[in-house]
Structures are given as structure tokens and as C-alpha cells.
Write a sequence for this structure.
């Protein structure tokens, strides 16, 4: 087995850095090789630094998006109120469905950059 293939294996107490793909300790918050802060993983899902989860936001956008619940979850209170005010028009539901698709297609790093602020 060559060196490149050998580097892609990890032990159960290791993970790959989200930026440089180096093997690091599973509990490491910052990669010692490149210095990039790692995203938290809980129950197999990657969460932003403030604990927000892309999958939860997408599910809320799909099922309760017409009421703006996903906006409240993501910390966009003003937009959530606007969604509530106009929920009777079904326009927020259509927009929420589009946001649902966007959230599913968004990378974890992009989600963390956009919604991960503390």
C-alpha cells in the first residue's frame, strides 16, 4: 500500500481535519497542522460553533418554514417575524421550500461561516 492510501485511514480516536484532511485527535478543536477550528460533531451531524445544525434547520424549513420557524432557529428573528406576518399568503412557505433545498445543498463549512457566529 502506498503512502497516500495509508494516510487516509484513521483510528477510532482520530478524525480528518475539515480543511487540510490531516489525521487529528477526535477531541481536537483546532487542527495542529493548519490551525483551523474544527466543527463540532454530535450524533453524526456537524454543528456550527454556536450549536446550530444544518439538518435541523433544513427539516424546520421543510415542515414549519411557512411560519418562519427555521429563521427563528437560525437567529434571524426579524425575518421570522416577517414570515409569521405573511404566512397567510403562502409566499413564506414557497420561499422556505427554496431555502430548504439551499440548506441541503450547502456545505457544512459554508453553513458554519454563514450561521455559526456566536
Amino acid at each position: 500500500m502506498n503512502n497516500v492510501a495509508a494516510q487516509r485511514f484513521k483510528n477510532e480516536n482520530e478524525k480528518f481535519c475539515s480543511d487540510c484532511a490531516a489525521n487529528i485527535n477526535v477531541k481536537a478543536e483546532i487542527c495542529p497542522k493548519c490551525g483551523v477550528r474544527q466543527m463540532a460533531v454530535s450524533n453524526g451531524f456537524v454543528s456550527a460553533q454556536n450549536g446550530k445544525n444544518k439538518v435541523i434547520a433544513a427539516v424546520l424549513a421543510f415542515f414549519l418554514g411557512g411560519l418562519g420557524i427555521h429563521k427563528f432557529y437560525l437567529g434571524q428573528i426579524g425575518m421570522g417575524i416577517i414570515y409569521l406576518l405573511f404566512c397567510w399568503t403562502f409566499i413564506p412557505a414557497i420561499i422556505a421550500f427554496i431555502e430548504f433545498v439551499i440548506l441541503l445543498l450547502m456545505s457544512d463549512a459554508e453553513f458554519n461561516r454563514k450561521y455559526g457566529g456566536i
